Amino acid sequence: MIRLLEARAISKFFGGLTALSEVSLTINKGEVYGLIGPNGAGKTTLFNVLTGAYVPDEGEFVFDGTELPTGKPHVVVEQGIARTFQNIRLFRDMTALENVMAGHHIRTRATIWGILTQNRRTREEERLTTERAFELLRYVGIEQFARTVSKNLSYGDQRRLEIARALATEPRLLALDEPAAGMNATETGRLRELIERIRADGTTVLLIEHDVKLVMGLCDRIAVLDFGKKIAEDVPAAVQRDPAVVEAYLGGGHHAQ
Amino acid sequence: MNELAELVPYLGKHKPRAARAVVILIALVAPLIAILFGRTWVRVLDFALLYMMLALGLNLVVGFAGLLDLGYIAFYAVGAYTWAFLASPHFAEAFPAFAAGIGAADGIHLPFWLVLPVGAALAALAGIILGFPVLRLRGDYLAIVTLGFGEIVRIFMNNLNYPINITNGPQGINLLDSMNLFGWDLARSIKLAGFKIDSLFFYYYFFLLCVVGSILFIQRLQISRVGRAWAAMRDDELAAKAIGINIRNMKLLAFSLGATFGGVAGGLFGAFQGFVSPESFSLMESIAVLVMVVFGGMGNIAGAVVGALILTALPEILRHIALPLQQALFGQVVLDPEVLRMLLYSLAMILMMLLRPKGLIPAHARYSRPEFVAAGEARA
């Protein structure tokens, strides 16, 4: 097992509220790593801290041997971590294709001068960006909507487009925040296939998900958060049997406090 | 010519012949108007072209990058004053001893190809100076700060005549050099085979060239990684960050590039008018340019152009109709054309918000090269 991402004792406080309390976890290369927990457990906060949207109050992330900077989302993406959002956030006035092309931004280098003169390098880069965007749309299965303005896409297709856009940043770790939220069974099934394909093609996946069936079937390992603390980290079958997890989900003594 | 024809909205794509006709019309419109209505209207056209450049530049900031800027005219002022400083007798008058000492007894008179880029660069710098403190602001807050910035620049121009006379204060700077294209003075009318070609035409074509150049540049920006990054930032800043767009750099780039167009337009304005004073750069002017952008359709090159043309020409048309009309009806002028202009601007805005909230030409902006998209579809 090669470690790809290591979270070391991450804490995040909002005023008096402890959103994350010394959460440590290790994601290995090539696995689908699930992050579950009841609402408000801190899953999305962990995402935001990881991707640089928030600055952690304590702890650090080590990604592929180097420490990630805090509060610099664009550097995190450049290092190879891409994310999607729980509530879809597409660029609504751009077409599906352009959304994916925008995702390729960090891997392109055209300068203002190159754009003004449209020199060969800029044109070639632009051609490759377009081509790559088509490939990714095909990869997630919505190439027929390349020209559709993204706000007019169906819900499931918007989710796929968001994944394609994240893949356009050429990540080594793809972080998906509840990708199956609001999907019906067929859509979820197709999503599962997609995530499996992404893993097979060599991208590690970090998955926040409420759909227990999806998580249990898809993930190699799972971490469970509750009240900002990691209460379990193991293979799905073991996590399912973990008494602390059962208590967190089904309620128990400490919920009544 | 074909590339120009493609720029014409709608027609460019569907009716190339009609588009070419439009291009020819634009090329011939100045002499036509002069013959039909007189040379005053060519002057109006010249100003319309300057406003087009301003609207195009502001559209870059407001329409593409989504940063509401109410102080845009400050960059116009920077360009105009740069021209005034570097191409007028002002410094010889203000500091005779110093000017004589450096061998510029009749003032500094640098050529246009030097002054315009310097003005553009200074405006871009001003754009960055404005950009830094407002990086974290949006919407109304951004508008207020940029508004303040615009006013600060104007107030500086108004008051920097004391203790050292740099800007000559409210009187402004006079006798600016005209545009001199390598020995050809645009401000001088030419007699050719008995015909007198008015200098206004030269300015018309020179400005037209500048506007077309601006449009080509902005269009190329729009379909580049930068255009996409701006649109992304405008549509959803958080998502833009999540795909690795460096928001700070892209905002500063938008402010400085937008300002560059303002700076060039300002330089042209100084040369054309031969005179600059702070009152040309009031808040109302900033608002006027913003209205042009919004009226025409935000985030849309054609919109900025059409908005600038209509809103520059309208007050002039009004002046020519409203004054005689009022005199005929009431025997006196009840409403000053300037008041009427503001009234109409407001009315136009209100109607626009009610009837066409996305502007005269709603943006259908594309951020990818059509030929590559077509090629990609063909392969699929």
Number of helical elements of chain B? 17
**Content-based structural category of chain B:** mainly alpha
CATH class of the largest domain in chain B: Mainly Alpha
Low-confidence stretches of chain A: none
Topology pattern of chain A, helix = H, strand = E:
EEEHEEHEHHHHEHEHEEHH
Radius of gyration of chain A: 19 Å
The figure for the number of domains of chain B is 2
What does this structure look like?
- The complex is a heterodimer of chains A (257) and B (380).
- Chain A has helices spanning 43-50, 73-79, 96-103, 112-117, 120-140, 155-167, 185-200, 212-218, 236-241, 243-250; strands spanning 3-14, 17-28, 32-36, 58-63, 66-67, 81-83, 173-177, 204-208, 221-226, 229-234.
- By secondary structure, chain A is of the alpha/beta class.
- Chain A folds into two domains: 1-80 and 171-257, 3-Layer(aba) Sandwich (Rossmann fold); 90-169, no CATH class.
- In chain A, the strands form two sheets. Chain A has a six-stranded mixed beta sheet with strand order 6-7-8-3-9-10, with helices on both faces. In chain A, strands 2-1-4-5 form a four-stranded antiparallel beta sheet, covered by helices on one side.
- The model of chain A has no long low-confidence stretch (mean pLDDT 92).
- Chain B has 380 residues and is mainly alpha-helical.
- Chain B has two domains: 1-38, no CATH class; 39-379, ABC transporter involved in vitamin B12 uptake, BtuC (Orthogonal Bundle), CATH 1.10.3470.
- Chain B is built from 17 helices and six strands.
- Chain B has helices at residues 2-7, 11-14, 16-37, 40-64, 73-86, 90-94, 96-101, 112-131, 139-159, 199-222, 225-235, 237-242, 247-273, 283-296, 301-330, 337-355, 370-379, and strands spanning 87-88, 108-109, 180-181, 184-185, 190-192, 195-197.
- In chain B, a hairpin with a 2-residue loop joins strand 3 and strand 4.
- In chain B, helix 5 packs across helix 13 (247-273).
- Chain B is globular.
- The mean pLDDT of chain B is 87.
